[in-house]
Amino acid sequence: MASSSSSRLKFFDKLHKFTITGILGVSLISAGLVLYNFYLFKKEGVPMLIEKYRTKVEEDIELKQREAEYLEERRQAEKKAQN
């Protein structure tokens, strides 16, 4: 009886150490990513981020316009096919 409880305690002790190691590892990786983002922000600055956002918005608008043109052409083709 005592040996099974001591083996159980050893197992939970190892599990506890593994869990703490995992939590610390994830925390360190998260902290590293946050620091890297701060580094990039400081390196590129606000104007670069604004330019990236503006470019992304312009690409999205262009994509929506192309999609609207395609849908309009498709509707016209369907109308011609029905007539």
Automatic annotation (TrEMBL):
It is a single-pass membrane protein. One of its GO terms (cellular component) is membrane. Residues 54-83 form a coiled coil. Keywords: Coiled coil, Membrane, Transmembrane, Transmembrane helix. Pfam families: COX14 (PF14880). InterPro entries: COX14. The chain crosses the membrane at residues 20-41. It is found in: Membrane. This is Uncharacterized protein.
